[in-house]
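Q: Structure tokens for this one, please.
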Amino acid sequence: MRKGIVALAILTMVFTVLVGCGKSNEGNKATSPAAEGTAPAASPAANFKVGMVTDSGTIDDKSFNQGTWEGVLKAVKEFGLEEKYLKPTGTTEADYTKEIGNLYDAGFKFILAPGFKFETAIFKSQDKYTDAKFVIIDGAPHSGDFAPVVKPNTVSVFFAEHESGFLAGVATALELKEGEAGFIGGMEIPAVQKFNWGFQQGLAYANETLGTKVTIKADNVVYQGSFDNVAAGGQLAAQMYDRGVKVIFAAAGGVGVGAINEAKNRSDVWVVGVDVDQYKDGVKADGKSVILTSAMKQIDTVAYDMIKAEKEGTFPGGQTLTFDAKNNGVGLPKENPNLSAETMTKVDEVFKQLQSGQIKVAGEQGTLIK
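A: Here is the predicted structure, written as tokens:
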């Protein structure tokens, strides 16, 4: 999934396109098909400074912030750019707007904002700083009315988390064969909810079609309410493991780190990671990892590609981009040491069915918990 990146070549007009990152389990390069009626490309940008404002959590949250920053670091190293990130003192629009302004005043006019909580701050900033470029991940600028307004100096990026969660659910059921699963989410927002819904659908699909018996109860589906409360994540995980849960899908940033830490103190329990490959974060003293697999979004690739596009004069301003299975935007890690070859073969087959549309995963809540 991380072998290379194909440069974005996208329209400068406003419309939604599908793009992709690395193919699940096969390491394909990212591709971005150009659409009809492409406007002439802008001139390549001179050196520019790349800034990022962190969402709740830290730059080393093993998840969303860190994934975005790793993509930034790769790009600035390759292109010889200067980078900087700022962590707000709070999580309000005013907090985010303040740090965006601080970056801009310091000459950082290419700014990445990872998270839906930046939506209203970016809405105002894209008008205030018209000579800056903005990339908002998992959100779209709006004035508070949730009516998206993506200006020509902004790109809005979304992922099909439900498809990634679905693949993780199938893999989990195939590997464990039977037992109880749980889900710990951070804030109850669409991106996290879709991971949950997809995971449950993946378990149900495997039970119904692949002969597994892994179930999930309503009591073992919890949204903690934040992305940075590590202690709470550990407590929630301990409660679930004590109830007999064998695997927890933790889509919760720092809260998920707490769940991973709790699993590392036990034997014969698992965690499904999120956003990035969290295998290394789950390694115990004996060298084994508690991370069964990870439901990935190629966040680092998005950050890298957007910076590269600006460098090459192809920044897709005004567009909303969706990364999904069809164009290899979501999936499992290329290497999954805790999944058998048999499991991975079946998961690859399911992934291809997702790509072809033979399998469709609902991105909204259905009758999932039984």
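A few notes: The chain has a mean pLDDT of 88. The domain at 161-296+340-356 is CATH 3.40.50.2300 (Rossmann fold).
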